[in-house]
Amino acid sequence: MSAVKAGIEPQTIVFEDDGLVPNNPMPFLVYKGVVDVRKNPEATIERLFGENGWGAMWRNGVYDYTHYHATVHEVLGVARGSARVQFGGERGHALEIAAGDVAILPAGTGHQCLSASDDFCVVGAYPPGPPMQITRPTPENHAKALKTIPLVAVPATDPVMGRDGPLVRLWKR
Q1: What is the band of 1 on the pLDDT scale with cuts at 50, 70, 90?
Q2: I want to staple 15 with a disulfide (CB 3.0 to 4.6 A). Which of 8, 23, 65, 116 is the partner?
Q3: Which pTM does this prediction carry?
Q4: For the CA atoms of 67, 71, 77, 79, what is the dihedral angle to 10 degrees?
Q5: Strand stretches in 16-155, DSSP E
């Protein structure tokens, strides 16, 4: 039995470069309530991401300061609780994410936790490629990121829906 609820399409948002947070011309994706997390939520999300070729997983929250990853894309699967997260930097959008939601951030997408429930837990993962590096929004980091972000390979699979998932259709260069 699949942990993924059928027929759910992700919401898409394209965040503009704000001069400090580069973001990405490919859309940020968020699936609302897509994963059934009633039993063993962290393990369920880890299994889903792993089956779809995403790895280097971790369990934690989302940092409370603005940051981005300039060399890799990232997926965040909410296993427990809920949070209000600012995506896209200061000029982006604050979104409520909750257990069962999955956010997929193309390289360069700013994110910062604004508030979270006490039980908030996220499973993070990355497609094959270089290791994740945390980048803070500074003019120097922005200039470097504008060179590295276009070099980050488009993943072969959507971490939720696999080879035929929306990410594969929507992330084009």
Answers
A1: low
A2: 23
A3: 0.97
A4: -70
A5: 28-31, 55-60, 74-80, 82-87, 93-98, 102-105, 111-116, 121-126
